[in-house]
Amino acid sequence: MDQYLEFAANHTLLMAALLFSFFLLIFTELRRRAGGLVNVEPQDAVKLINNDAVVLDLRSPEAFAKGHIVNAKNIPFDELDAKNERLEGFRSRPIVAVCDSGVTSTRAVTTRAAATAALRACC
């Protein structure tokens, strides 16, 4: 235990960076949860889809044509704001946003969370 304290005393900059990273992680996670943003795992997405969730595929029409989740609605991320009225029809149902890597769906959930309370990102 004395070695840890000695290390911390000798490397204050490293310890400050570690504490800052830790608190930033906690703050980000708490803010995300307070805002109602939810990332779901594929298993949870399947449960939501089986319980009448709408799947919103944010990929390009070409990628959508190559393969997609059954009954998924294709609205490319670039056109999401323009097709806002299409999302309003699903306001009462949970919406699962999917993309290739999870980055686009998370960004869509972050930007649309205020307008669509039940929007969730997957994968």
Account of the protein in words:
The chain has 123 residues and is α/β, with parallel strands linked by helices. The protein contains 6 helices and 5 strands. Helix 6 links the parallel strand 4 and strand 5. The N and C termini lie far apart (41 Å). The model has no long low-confidence stretch (mean pLDDT 83).
Strand and helix layout:
Elements: H1 2-10, H2 12-34, E1 38-40, H3 42-50, E2 54-57, H4 61-66, E3 73-74, H5 84-88, E4 95-98, H6 103-112, E5 119-122
Parallel strand pairs: 1-5, 2-3, 2-4, 4-5
Mean pLDDT: 83
Structural class, judged by helices and strands?
alpha/beta
Write down the Rg. Answer: 20 Å
- Inertia-based shape: elongated
CATH superfamily of the largest domain: Rhodanese-like domain
Helix content: 40-55%
Strand runs, count: 5
Order of helices and strands: HHEHEHEHEHE
Tell me the fraction of residues in β-strands, as a range.
5-15%
Q: Within the CATH hierarchy, at the fold level, what is the topology of the largest domain?
A: Oxidized Rhodanese, domain 1
Number of helices in the DSSP assignment: 6
Which stretches are low in confidence, meaning pLDDT under 50 for 5 or more residues running?
none
Separation of termini?
A: 41 Å
Largest sheet: 5 strands, parallel
CATH class of the largest domain: Alpha Beta
Strand order of the largest sheet: 1-5-4-2-3
Q: How many domains comprise the coordinates?
A: 2
CATH architecture heading of the largest domain? 3-Layer(aba) Sandwich
